[in-house]
Amino acid sequence: MSIFGATALCVRLAAGLLAASAVPPASVSVTRDLVYGEDPTLQSLDVYSQEGEVHLPVVVFIHGGGWAEGDKGVHLRKGSFFVHAGFVYVTLNYRLSPAVTHPAHAEDVARALGWVREHIADYGGDPTRIFLLGHSAGAQLAALVATDPRYLALAGLKVEDVRGVALLDGSGYDLVTRVPLSRGWSRTMYLQAFGSDPKVWADASPVRHIEKGRPLPPFLLFHIDARRASATQAVLLASAVNAAGGSAEVVPVTGRNHATIVKRLGLPGDPVGAQLLRWMRARLR
Which of 97, 170, 235, 247 could cross-link with 218 by S-S, CB 3.0 to 4.6 Å? Predict the structure, then answer.
């Protein structure tokens, strides 16, 4: 593992954070800063696993931040939550705007998935049972990688290897309709990441890559109930998936906002985390 610049450490995590898990508390091995590209900071990932376990399903988390900020290590609790629920958890960084624009972000996610395919068995994970989980900008990236076949091909993965895609309050699934409606800081954010060419917006839009007869993983789309943009975009994506013969479910979330839907994921009593685990486990049968 040293060739990837890894710094391995084991941490004992508080049992109180794991009350909702069916797996008894145990140590979680955290291997940080595994490099999948040329940039050791922005093209790197962390792996959370449980020592001695093998062939576990894998959750790959893609952070938000408007394609311009964010970090893989911000929400450490999720690693504990998923490991003690019986998964290997991977959280990744990717290059950020304005230094790069589309398709660099999605290409980085694909390269990270390629790393997962090659190496996750070393951490007890099964590369044929991967779930993608993204928040905000990360939700757009997770959806794009799952719907545009170029990205899974770049990762050396098949659609069947992705058991499901769970999206947390994304609002960029169809940039062709979203960008013209944006104003102020949000418009600046979209233009910084995707430029001003509608053809690029279409290329970066998961909705625009869905075709009847093309295989798709199942989708679970959470959105804040009072956030119109994410609700509209979730329905657009889910409708396209279902119309193409796939499976997509939209879940409005009350009592959360755009930030707390991901910050509180994994806390005892969190309904989003509980529903997410049920949905993923149902796709492992």
Answer: 247
3-state DSSP call for residue 80? helix
For residue range 238-266, list pLDDT tens digits in order: 999 999 999 999 999 999 999 999 999 99
Element (H, E) at 189: helix 184-194
* Domain-wise residue ranges, the chain: 2-282
pLDDT band at 21 (very low <50, low <70, confident <90, very high): very low
Which residue(s) pair with 35 in the sheet?
A: 44
Q: How far is CA 280 from CA 42, 85, 131, 219, 255, in A?
A: 28, 11, 8, 10, 23
CA dihedral 92, 96, 102, 105 (to 10 degrees): -10
* Structure tokens given for 163: 């058991």
Question: pTM for the full model?
Answer: 0.91
Pairing of strands 28-35, 44-49: antiparallel
In the CATH scheme, what is the homologous superfamily, with its name and number, of domain 2-282? Answer: Alpha/Beta hydrolase fold, catalytic domain (3.40.50.1820)
Say whether 181 sits in a helix, a strand or coil: helix
- Phi and psi, residue 203, nearest 5°: -65, -30
Among residues 52, 51, 48, 53, the alpha carbon closest in space to that of 61 is found at 48
Answer for the pair 59, 276: CB distance below 8 angstroms, yes or no: no
